[in-house]
Amino acid sequence: MAGIVSSLQFVNAQKSIVNELPPRLYIQGREMFLNNNYTGAENTLNEFKQTNKEKSLQLEADYMIAAGAYFRGKENSATILREYLDTYPESYHRNDICFYIGSSFFNEKDWAKALYWFNQSDIAYLSISDQEDYSFRSAYALLQEGNREEAARRFDILARNSNKYYEPATFYKAYIDFRNGNYDKSLETFERLKNNPEYKEQSLFFITQGYFLKNDLNSAINAGTNYLNSYPDNNNSAEIYRILGNSYYRSGNTNESISYYEKYLNKTDKPFREDMFQLGTAYSQANSPAQAIKALQFAASTDDQLGQASYMLLGQNYLKVNDNSNALMAFDAASRAKFDPSISEVALYNYALLVHKTSLSIFDQSITVLQRFLKEYPNSKYVNEINNQLASTLLSTKDYQAALNVIDQMNAPGRQILEAKQSILFQLGAQDFIDGKYDQAIQRFNACINMGNYDSKSKNESYFWRGETRYRQNEFAAAAKDYQTYTSLTNSTDSNYSLALYNLGYSYFKQKQYNNSLSSLQQYIAQEKNSQSLTYADALNRIGDCYLYNRNFSDAERAYTQASTRNQQSAEYADFQKAFVMGLQHNYNGKISALDAMIRKYPESQYIDDAMYEKSRALVMTGREQEATSVLSQMLNKFPDSNIAAKAGVLLGQSYYNTNQTNQAISTYKKVIERDKNTEEARIALQSLEGIYRDINDISSYANYANSLGSGVIISTSRQDSLTYLAAENVYMKGRTAEAVNTMRKYLQTYPNGQFAGDAHYYIGIVAYENKDNVTALNEFNQTVQSGNSKNLSKALLHIGDIQLANNDTQAAYNTFKRLERVAVNSEEKNAAQLGILKTAGASGNDNEIITTTTQLLSSDKTSPEVISEARLARAKAYLNISATNKAVEDLTKAATDTRSVYGAEAQYLLADTYLKAKAYDKAEQQVLQLMKQGTPHAYWMARSIIVLSDTYKAKGDKFQAKQYLESLDANYTGNEPEIRSMISERLAALNN
């Protein structure tokens, strides 16, 4: 029994120990909490919670753990506190907890959440110390959230009732007064607080700002100076420098203003625009235009009056440093901004004068800007001067169409204006000629000539260029008449006099008036000073041709010899012709030797096939038939598409027969018959074949072969066939084209495979082509090619290629021009073929062929200047594609010399773009400025060049000029190409970010 009692006592003793342990851990934790040992309290209280069963103690323990997390600044204390509220929503610690949560967000500068939780707490239930903290923190958070009125009220209460927060509350109350514009009241407080080391710096800063905002400039200068003496380099010094610079400027002390503004600029990347305008003005007054420009670029804008005034002053300073292009941009921008009409007027006046003085503008606005001024400011004091400038500008403008429009609107223009009009009509005609608009060019030149003698030079030049235009249109008689008129009206010293004689000789030559041609070309030779020029050597060749056609062989040979020694590009033709003339003089051995020398010297010559053919003829004449057959075989293998292939085939067949190679002769004649059907050579070959079969007594084989040909080959031409066609051709030659087409079609119905079927199809095609019926024309020209008659083959191919190119059938056009290149009968057709190859090869990206073809084209003395520019541009693009930049630049530089041409304008753009991509920014800039100086009627390429200039300035770090040129382009460009507008808007958006 005693043992049981003892055991019970022991158990009871154990129970009492267990029951007493939790309160002790709780008490220890609470003491640690009250002693600010929050970590120890947390550990002890967590141990207590493991065995505690009392809810009230659990609540208290959790409160102290949560509050301790806040007091020791635990990172997730706000979360811990909120979890406590979620667990014990009715806790009597709720006000403290909400205050602590708000204070956690306050420490994180999350003002909105801080205020929310502060508002969840009733300040009356907080301790006195927490009440003060609550008041200050809530006031400060309200201030940060922009509720200055309530923040001021709370700071005011604190300043009157709290020792702890008296000075900070007083400071922030003064700050709010300052922000509300109560400068006198705030300054009084800041003056008092500046003696407190904790608030001295900020007080001095606000004192300086306060005096400045009150326009008490002397006090602001003194306060700012004191501030900088005490705090020479801190976060607020930039603003103090700005205030001092501004105050000194408004006080009239320019030097001190500049000094402090410069220090301000060293402290900030984004200065205030108003201050930069003042600094720019100060620099202007101090005659420092370069520095003024840098400052004003921060302020210039078309968005407000300050920006407009800045642009005006900027333009004036650009003039001082002779930067006319940027001065134009600035005056243009100032004139477009309408915030201050007086500035707009003066800016537009300066802009107009500068355009007239320098001929420099994005687009040739020398006339339009003057008209704009008269329209916008009809009562301006500058009207008389602008009118005088307009009259003068009409005589010198590059925007000829605009000038003509202005003159045509005048009621009674005086002689000076009529002189200008006649000159403008000539310039417009010349521009149309350059652009290939020949009909329009003729109209311009006619109008110029019909005006009489207001400007005799323009009238005379119109005769010359009308002759050029008519020559390009194959109107050789009319061209000759114009050249004759030009030479009769001008002196031999005039720039185009010699060229007129040369062209006159060619016009006669094209009409087969060889005596007249010879006379004109000889006059040209006597007049031309440069005997090494292409035209000089070419004229000698034509003189040789004239002698040749007149059968004056010795003089012809002498002329060809002279041409051969004058110019490399004319020598191959001259050497060939000289050899040909030797043959006409029965010097066959000399002819053979000369042709061999020519073939060795020019292995890639376009005359190689002719040279081999003529050599074979000379070999036949010297009885060397075997050698002749070898040469002819080589020629036909190498040049199967030559325009003389049929003749060569006939001669080869005859040579084989003469050398008893009968089978080879038969085979050769059959090739001619089958390949060149319906030609004179095919008929000769068939007749020769008949003779061979007769000689070998095999008429049946001949008959079988001839019958197998069917109607595809005409054995003999009927008299009726010939007369019917010639009658139709005669109608065409008289200009009765509609009647001629009907007659030609009747001929084709009667003789669908007649000897002249190819010619008939060609002339029907020409009429359709001239009537812009390209579908019919293409069909007829194809019939010409398929007829096998080579008389008009090359001409038909040229038209086919042009139509295919117009139809964007690039591959077909390429194939056509390649064939034309092989069969071209003269250098003009060969040039046309090569130009077509350039255009089509470019579309297919065949850069190497473009380079090769262009090089051949440029080596020809028959290539016209506008074709040369187009060819150089095409080759430059190809060089760029294969990264041969230096060669591209060389071609572009030459092509860019004449910006009247679209090719010259594009070359200018490509040069600038190439320099930009190579990071040669100065070269890119100068290239565009040069184009602006020269001007061009091709606005699209000017716009593209201006965009390159903007990109160049951006790459150089000059965003202001980059933006300025884009804005001017956007305002002045009248084109409607969407890509230009897109380029402008994208770049402006990037620059504004």
From TrEMBL:
Q: Which GO terms describe its biological process?
A: receptor-mediated virion attachment to host cell
What is the top-level taxon of the source organism? Bacteria
Keywords annotated in UniProt: Repeat, TPR repeat
TPR-type repeats, residues: 238-271, 498-531, 646-679
Q: Is-annotated flag, keyword ATP-binding?
A: no
Provide a GO CC annotation, any one: cell outer membrane
PANTHER family linked: TETRATRICOPEPTIDE REPEAT PROTEIN 6, UDP-N-ACETYLGLUCOSAMINE--PEPTIDE N-ACETYLGLUCOSAMINYLTRANSFERASE SPINDLY-RELATED
List the protein's name: Tetratricopeptide repeat-containing protein
Q: Which organism is it from?
A: Dysgonomonas macrotermitis
